Amino acid sequence: MSDTEHTLFSKRFRGFFPVVIDVETAGFNKNTDALLEIAVTTLKMDDDGLLSLDQTVHFHVEPFEGANIEQSAIEFNGIDPFSALRGAVKEEHAIKEICKAVRKAQKAAGCQRSVVVAHNAAFDHGFLNAAIERNNIKRTPFHPFVSFDTTSLAGLALGQTVLAKACRAAGIEFDNSQAHSALYDTERTAELFCHIVNKWQALGGWPLSKNEEIAEEPNNEKDCN
User: Which of the following is catalytic: 58, 119, 180, 195?
Assistant: First the structure.
């Protein structure tokens, strides 16, 4: 990875490293309902400042002890939480491995903090934060509340807010039969985010002209405790 790439990536989002995430859950309550599947996709930037997908980390997750499982939720996503065929791992293992992979990619990109990118980001970010807190994970690369929501970005750029429709509007193939898999949805969301960011650059929206450049602010944010 070149020094130019480091500089471009760190400048593009004010030192933030966007990490695309999707979760599948056993309900809507982040504090009580089980996290069943999680995937994250890291991004890379070429020497022209264009984003593309880099690596994806994916886990099926065992429901945490005492977790609530809503029947309607698992009927919707088609996940059998207790099937041995899932190859599920403990929630703590999944989150620690994801943090490790993201921290490594963030450092390689020359960035200082990772920011969740997701479709309806508040939901996925909430479940991620709850799992981090539940497992008492002290060292996490993720910003605790900043996120980039591709629902809003797609509404602005493409006139669509549903993931499948936004992808198709962007010329990204979307297979409904594979939807509601964290792995599939994460990678499609990552493609959508890259498309929007790259299109903005192609239209002249980035980089800012010299007269419009905003002075960089120091980013002194530390890992969550």
Answer: 180
